[in-house]
Amino acid sequence: MYLTTFMRTKNMKQSFLKSLLAKLESNSFLVFVLFTLAALTILVNAPGHITSDPIYQLKEGRTNNFLSIHPPFMSFMLGILDKIYPGYILFFLINISIFYFSIYLLLKDNFEYRKTTLMVLIAICLSPIILIYNGIVWKDILFANLALLGFSLLSRERMNIGLVLLTALTFAAIVLVRQQGFLVVACGAFCFALREPGLKKTMRVFRFVGSLLLIFALSKLIFLMIIINGAKIFDPTFRSGLTSVLLYDVSGIAYMQGPAILTEFAKAGVNISDYMAIVIQSYSDSRIDFMQFGSTTYAVFDWNVLTAQWLHAVKEYPMSYLIHRLNVFSWLMGFQDHTQCLPLALGIDGPIAIISELRLERINYPYKSALWNYAKTFFHTPLYMPWFYALIGGIALHSLAKKFALPKERALFMLLVSAFMYVGSYFFFSIACDFRYTYLLVLASTITILILAPNWLGHKLNLQ
User: What is the pTM of this model?
Assistant: First the structure.
């Protein structure tokens, strides 16, 4: 009797385990896990954390006056969504949806060792890098999530015309969110050109060029829609952003070499003594924000004067330029005191007058302190050091290269390549060491870990 009862109990346990494993293998369970993680992200971050940049962009979207140095797409997007529901919560929800939909696309088909990956997925999505950053209204997070979506779409084994157009629209938005977005687009077009085996080289070149033309045509169409909507764009050439880069370079070289290099500034009537006093007092390798130029030095912002001075300084002192750039980049990659590089933003932080104008001051963040304490425990770990993700990404590239012929591995490989190219461009363009500038590399490396985890862990975590 006892033996019979024992056997029945054993059979019931085995039946339950088989049922549980079957559920783990199903897409419906994957959807449940992703939905739960997305809901948790929304719950702890709602209605989204916001700083000065997106506050200005929200104001631009409401007024249709694009006066900052930011590309206008995100301001336009915030403005459109603000008309539907005031504030930035819809943007916050869309950004989170883009991320989790991308993960679903990567995990839903032809997936081995799902149980291991689900464990890694939960661990990654509960880390502050994913859990909290997806709740911050920054264009850098939108940019990274759009790149992830674009390459997730390219990972599909088959793409109909609808998916092709959606992919092209995604990459068109990428171009408009960040000035260096064309680097990601070029990698996406190259990935698309390699999709079908057996194509002749000329056909691949045609597909590469054709996809680039389609993406840039769509981006111009979106930009035209912004103009037709009545937007007043302060800087349609986006030259003002580059002005800060050139001025930072000149200041860095002058800090090392002294005022003798400032011949072009002197010709333009810049008060060199005042300029050098500002440079000596406030120049830093970590960020340009500390430097404030007054009326006697205002001519440094003249485009023709500044470019002439920059060319002179770089030509005459190339080693000083490279040292300056290397020091700035080392801050960006986390080799210096990375805690000074804005590793996190929670709640609302920005100009009080504009916050009041936009009626954002009454927003409550019940989990703000808890999130800060949670994230703070990781500040001095590699989790907040971009060089760590560069290391992981380099190892992942080697693993993915072995399976480059497969759509998913090829798409992830090109995502990582685009991330390295994008972050690498900051060697020449960085003006601050903010962690968010490297978020594309952080996200690409993290998601690659998710996909490669079963192989890297040797399948040890799989349930038998």
Answer: 0.89
